[in-house]
Amino acid sequence: MRLVSYIKQLLTVFLLCIGLSAVAYASNSIESVRIWPAPENTRIVFDLSEKPDFKYFPLKSPYRLVIDFKNSKNNAALMSAINTDRRVKKIRTSTSKEKGSTRLVLELAEDFRVSVFPLAPAGQYGDRLVIDLYDKKSRSIEKNDNNLGKRDIVIAIVAGHGGEDPGSIGAAGTYEKRVTLKIAQKLANLIDKKPGLKAVMIRSGDYYVDHNRKTELARKSKADLLISIHADAFTSSKPNGASVLVQATRRADSEFTRWIQNREKNSELLGGAGETIRKTKDNNLAIALADMKKEYTMASSYDFAEHVVKQLKKVTKLHKKKPERLSLAVLKSSDIPSVLIETGFISNPQEEKRLNNAHHQQKLAKAIYTAVDDYFAHNAPDGTLIAAARVREHKISRGESLSVVAQRYKVSVSQLKSANNLKSNVVRIGQTLKIPQAD
């Protein structure tokens, strides 16, 4: 009997330890849930104590969306916010396969287009996870963004070669045009999953697009960035590794000279400065403004190319450790930042095999996507959804007051105080303030 009693005591202690461990393991918590129905979509917001580490997947028969919050516990009254929303029938917990995680299940009325993304603390809100459910009969996610006055950042993706132009051909018979299209499609899929980004495929099938037409199509799509995907080749089978190329300065200057000569036709390519460039009778002013645009485009191209190099080296060997400048027709645009990515040497048998591998193609696409995401996180154009969601910061310098900062960023003093939990108007030199979005 003593032995049985002793075993029971050990078991009790063991179970208690497991319980305490599970509590300690849950470092994050779901504090509340908010639901915002709209005519064409519903937004569900989970408020959390920390930045969420999450995974999600859809299920059918019936339609559900499952979200796993890693290292988290649920403190929210899940059904309290639903009310009469027609898209979400129920929110409930379920059993997660991962220890310490919380699994939430959204039971849905039908099949919706789903967008899931985290939001950093801003204003009165802390860390959040946002789920947008879009009716499939509505026009598009982009239309909803435009209704809010914010546009997507457009990435034009050029799959090198195509049609009668196979590009380089590997020893095993691999066509470059087929490899580049598969990587481009994978990249486009990743980009389109990110709210605020939109991919435009310049070539979506096995056909050839003229170099001039590539930039025309990118411009017609109002692209903010052009990415051309290729696979390198050499007469020897030894070279291997990826490279990132940007336009050579001499080629850019040559294109610019030809371009500015017909500035009335090309003025629409220069954004806000275009009208001034077209109408001014001062040739020096026109050239100066256009040259500033060209220099900005070239600098942006190189900056983004460095982001790509940083990510590619994590998944493949590099042939060139820094972006290289070459004279390339597809990169000639003076108004759209452009890069050409050589994903590897198709003339190298080992690399040809990797370039044919779907998993390796996905790794390359993910690396390029991450470079896009990182770059625009800090360089999102004004008027875009990503720029609006970005949390801006300002460090107080000598002589600055709260009202001066508010005036600079076109927000009110009360908005600044609310976003930074300030009780008074006093700020100190070196203090960093979060800048809320202007109303």
In DSSP terms (H or I, runs of 4 or more residues), the helix count works out at 13
- Name the helicity range: 25-40%
What order do the helices and strands follow?
Answer: HEEEEEEEEEHEHEHEEHHHHEEHHHEHHE
Mean pLDDT comes to 81
Low-confidence stretches: 18-24, 138-148, 263-277
Total E-strand runs: 17
Kindly report the spatial arrangement of strands forming the biggest sheet.
11-10-12-15-13-14
Instruction: Give a quick account of the main beta sheet: strands, pairing sense, barrel closure.
Output: 6 strands, mixed
Q: Roughly how many Å apart are the termini?
A: 73 Å
Write down the Rg.
27 Å
Write down the overall geometry: globular
Structural class: alpha/beta
What share of the residues does DSSP label as strand, in percent? 15-25%
Descriptive account of the structure:
- The protein is α/β, with parallel strands linked by helices.
- The protein is built from 13 helices and 17 strands.
- A six-stranded mixed sheet has the order 11-10-12-15-13-14, with helices on both faces. The protein has a five-stranded mixed sheet with strand order 5-1-2-9-8, with no helix packed on it. Strands 3-4-7-6 form a four-stranded antiparallel sheet, with no helix packed on it.
- Helix 5 packs antiparallel against helix 8 (283-312) and helix 8 (283-312) packs across helix 10.
- The protein is globular.
